[in-house]
Amino acid sequence: MLSREDFVFTIGYDGPTAVVDKQAKKKYGKLSTKELVEKGLYRAAYSSAVYSKESSELRYVVDSYTSLGDPSAGAGAGAGAGVGAGAGEAPLSREDLTEAERSAMDRLFGVFLVDVKRSISL
To answer: What are the structural domain ranges in the chain?
Structure first.
């Protein structure tokens, strides 16, 4: 299994090998799922939540992402709206994602937990 940082910043696969974004991993690899959301790195945040297998992290990412287009989520539209301190931050809940939500997010971000043992960094 890949390390969390390699999984979070995997940009594709070359056969049985994960291809990892070395620069993004170096810059953001130590951030938590919540910190990745706050930076607007939703694909990385979703990957982190999938890797952790914590339903609360998955719910947090989904709620934060879906609140981006909600004008009542905070002042101003665009990256980061609806997340962060004072911007109508999405609540952490223990509710599991429905199968439809999980499937939609997996397809949206192209993130699937696969058993890969090797990675290369570009």
So the answer is: 4-121
